[in-house]
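Teaching assistant here, posting this on the class forum so everyone can see the example we discussed in section. The complex has two components, and the goal was to see what a joint structure prediction looks like when all of them are supplied at once.
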Amino acid sequence: KAGVTQTPRYLIKTRGQQVTLSCSPISGHRSVSWYQQTPGQGLQFLFEYFSETQRNKGNFPGRFSGRQFSNSRSEMNVSTLELGDSALYLCASSVEGSNTEAFFGQGTRLTVV
Amino acid sequence: DAKTTQPTSMDCAEGRAANLPCNHSTISGNEYVYWYRQIHSQGPQYIIHGLKNNETNEMASLIITEDRKSSTLILPHATLRDTAVYYCIVRSFGSGTYKYIFGTGTRLKVLA
């Protein structure tokens, strides 16, 4: 069974640009959540999608957005990139249910220059 | 804010058991305890989770105190590949939402 796939693995962008990251969940998983990891702030929850609806959102500015498609694949977008957006962006997927776990992808390393 | 407190770092000799403590004194009745580890900026890897009973799988054992205010992750025979940052997380399942609040974790170093 394939794991969570994130593309691209590495990305370099310039300040002011926008970027789209993609996440393909494990087959059958309908919940997809996104996290940002930086040396200073650690792992922080961005948002979670289930059945194409955002179900929860972390404390990030509106420049960070996401969506989920009918096949459960998800994308997140960051507009007007800032140097501080340089981070490892992680996606996790899970099946619905209380006694279940989320599985993480390998992440996309974004560098803003 | 994270609901868990963990030691910043620990060392363990290879082949010995690694016991990683976690304090979650404000845990609610509808919250599970989850453990993940992250090896050198890879994606976090799921290890184990539990509600109130002790749990064991092929990777580790999870011991939760009777009052549920703390837990210990046990790696029975640590190897060099177990060197990683270990995160203890509590997650509410009431709403069904998957939102992990990560703390700073414990950096475990397994020594040869």
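For the discussion questions: Chain A has a mean pLDDT of 94. Residues 28 and 63 of chain A are 30 Å apart (CA to CA). Think about how each of these relates to the inputs above.
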